[in-house]
Amino acid sequence: MIYPFLSSTLRELQLFVRSWRFWTTFALVVLIFVFTGPYGTLESMTLGVRLGYWLIIHTITWAIAISLSISAEVLLRRHLSHTLARMMVGALVAALPIGFALGVVNYAFRGYWTETDGGLQRALIALPLCALFCLLTYVVTHRQIAEVTVPAAAPQALTGSPASEPQILSRLKPYNRGALVRLSVADHYTDVVTSRGHELILLRFADALKELDGTPGLQVHRSYWVADAHVEKLRRDKGRLFVVMKDGQEIPVSRPNLDATRMRFGHL
């Protein structure tokens, strides 16, 4: 389970750090601290030293808070249904290591080490900042959530999802929940493709098929399932049969599934 957890966490982090909104916000916050010089840094440090100090402080604190937020988001998926709640748990846990990290940076720049009480006090001060970092992470990585948090009937009408959504859709981020198009195997994950996008979920393919809840479709290969509504036609190439999806994707049909596939889609 360690490898899938690390793989999923790294995927989340990569999506996050590629966001220009994150880097723009980070740069603005650092500059604000550099030029306002809070906590006595304006008087005690030159501009260059102050820039280095606040750049290091924010790099360390943001990295700890965001990493723990995303780790908690992955670990707690089976226990907490709301993404922000999962991330907030990790962010608040981050306050303690952030308090210690602040002590180390202060020692490096100012030449003295604060006592344990000071470190705990900094951890308490860091709590609201960690919550702020968590909210920033949530906004950046899930910025489309606001577009889909409307009454359930609206997205179903737009995407063609059935009135009762398959259980597997509840595992997806809200902005990816739409009509099921196909499922495929991806290492330890199942790649779920919907009319709104696709997402890798940590679930065995066989278990994913059990969560389709009667969605009309067919497993055409040991690694692929396709939804009836999104199949365009069948195509044969060099003796092999393929299911052509409406989005242009071609799915191979395995030999044991040839007859069932022809019966299901041969009239298209």
TrEMBL record:
InterPro entries: LytTR_DNA-bd_dom. It comes from the Bacteria. The keyword Hydrolase does not apply. GO terms for molecular function: DNA binding. The chain crosses the membrane at residues 20-39, 51-76, 88-109, 121-140. The keyword Membrane applies. This is DNA-binding LytR/AlgR family response regulator.
